[in-house]
Design goal:
Elements: E1 3-8, H1 10-14, H2 18-28, E2 31-38, H3 42-48, H4 58-65, E3 70-76, H5 80-88, H6 101-105, E4 114-116, H7 120-130
Antiparallel strand pairs: 1-3, 1-4, 2-3
The protein binds ribavirin triphosphate and magnesium ion.
Subunit structure: Homotetramer.
GO cellular component, one term: cytoplasm
Domain Nucleoside diphosphate kinase-like: 1-138
């Protein structure tokens, strides 16, 4: 089953949107297989955002993601990588459609509430950066026949 890495960013945690966000993905039918409230070190932030190293906003990005606890999660389900990106809305909340997480809760591109892997390669890489094998659960057999 496809897996993705989602993370409520420090603004989402401070604004107490963790439950709301988990609830949206649960109601959709996706399955939470790992989750933890944690602090992101500068080293981890640098690796996570390595693709943006040369961008002018890179330092800002690292400063923001390390500024307070995040809620890191792994979710699974059919097409979860691209469907969760649609549920998040586009990067800039100013352009995000109402009904999406960023469209409903965000105002600026820097504080856009949530991160989600953008491809199967990113998902594998990011899950590996944030979670060990032992932190991921496998209980899908119990619920799948009601969804698929
Ligand atoms: P994310 O990685 O956080 O899920 O967001 P994304 O794929 O939608 O966007 P991405 O291009 O990967 O950018 C990562 C984060 O950098 C911040 N950003 N700031 N022009 C700017 O100042 C700018 N552009 C991007 C955003 O917080 C974005 O989520
Ligand atoms: Mg991205």
């Amino acid at each position: 089953m496809e897996k993705t890495f989602l993370m409520v960013k420090p603004d989402g945690v401070q604004r107490q949107l963790v439950g709301e966000i988990i609830s949206r993905f649960e109601r959709k039918g996706f399955q939470l297989v790992g989750g933890k409230l944690m602090n992101v070190s500068s080293e981890l932030a640098g690796e996570h955002y390595a693709e943006h190293k040369e961008r002018p906003f890179f330092n800002d990005l690292v400063e923001f993601i390390t500024s307070g606890p995040v809620f890191a999660m792994v979710w699974q389900g059919e097409n979860v990588i691209s469907t969760s990106r649609k549920m998040m809305g586009v990067t800039n909340p100013k352009e995000a459609t109402p009904g999406t997480i960023r469209g409903d809760f965000g105002l600026t591109v820097r504080k856009n509430i949530i991160h989600g892997s953008d491809s199967p390669e990113s998902a594998v890489r990011e899950i590996g950066l944030f979670f060990s094998e032992q932190e991921l659960q496998d209980y899908s057999k119990l619920i799948n026949r009601w969804i698929y």
